[in-house]
Amino acid sequence: MIAFLFPGQGSQTVGMGKALAEAFPEARAAFEEADAAFAAAAPVASAAPPVASGFSRTSEPSRSLRELCFEGPEDQLILTEHTQPAILAVSVAAARVLETRGVRPQFVAGHSLGEYSANVVAGTFAFADAVGIVRRRGRYMQEAVPPGQGAMAAILGLEAADVRRACEEAADGEVVSPANINSPGQIVIAGAAAAVARAGERARALGAGRVIPLAVSAPFHCALMKPAELRLEPELGALAVRDPLVPIVADVDAQPKRDAGAAIDALVRQVSAPVLWEDVVRRLASEGVTTYVEVGPGRVLGGLVKKMHREATILAFGEPGDLDAVLHVRPLR
């Protein structure tokens, strides 16, 4: 049984998707569709309520989404509201190449932003709608916390219970909590910058092997993201949706979502809730998944899966050269 896994923010690189678009017409068509939706979702200065985030509208690119993916510049690609639709576009373009060749999953899942790619591939909502939503999602998340006031850090070599304990003991009235429970011994925390620093020190005292501050623009998947969740909820609720064609194992609770309402609710809640990636992978394995294909840029998720499901077949498809391996292992249907 095959699951498609879709990467989240952090997997972006300048040049991603270019070889796919050059090699496959269906990938080129996907980027053309994404370009139109990305342009349509460009912010209007008076559209959003004023925020004290320091976010500058002058960061708007003059380039298309396709150009940002293929050519950068990196300082524009890494802006959250550009990164999120860019990764989505590459992931969906890659999935369409596989679908055209008869490779279809029985389950899908995505890490944070990747859950939108999963929903597009499952048919919950249209690709163009997703591009607009994630562009605004990125903007809302960036605007939720003023620059420099939030932080994230990876805690390596410490059990989840001890990471939670470190956060609780270090909070001192501020927000800090587990944000990405990625695999045994790899947990990311998020919250107020000072609280994250204190929690990192406490984690070291409890036996963490390493504490690595992350270069991120906002503290994702913690209570500080609640304003972004509240702004996004009505937009997700207004989407034209249908029940997914295959179950989506959601980050927020690691449960398969088989109807549109549950899938949308999961996307709303994941903005300020932790990504339970370890539980997602274990649920997929319990459902009988034996082959995982990471679809889109990067190979981070495959490495996490290998730590938990060692006997599984793990593949990636983000470049034309990856295709033969995926076609070789797909079961006959």
Would you kindly provide a written description of the structure presented here, covering whatever features stand out?
With 333 residues, the chain is of the alpha/beta class. The chain folds into two domains: 2-145 and 223-329, Malonyl-Coenzyme A Acyl Carrier Protein, domain 2 (3-Layer(aba) Sandwich); 150-213, Alpha-Beta Plaits, CATH 3.30.70.250. Helix content is 46%, strand content 15%. The chain contains 14 helices and ten strands. It has a four-stranded parallel sheet with strand order 2-1-9-10, sandwiched between helices. Strands 4-5-3-6 form a four-stranded antiparallel sheet. A two-stranded antiparallel ribbon has the order 7-8. The longest helix is centred in the N-terminal third of the chain and has 21 residues, at 80-100. It is globular and about 55 Å long.
Helical content stands at: 40-55%
Low-pLDDT residue intervals, each spanning 5 or more residues:
46-59
Mean of all residue-level pLDDT scores: 93
- CATH class of the largest domain, anyone? Alpha Beta
What is the rounded Rg?
19 Å
CATH architecture of the largest domain: 3-Layer(aba) Sandwich
The name CATH uses for the topology of the largest domain is: Malonyl-Coenzyme A Acyl Carrier Protein, domain 2
Shape: globular
Major sheet details = 4 strands, parallel
CATH superfamily of the largest domain: Malonyl-Coenzyme A Acyl Carrier Protein, domain 2
Q: Could you spell the SSE succession in H and E letters?
A: EHHHHHEHHEHEEHEHEEHHEHEH
**In order across it, which strands form the biggest sheet?**
2-1-9-10
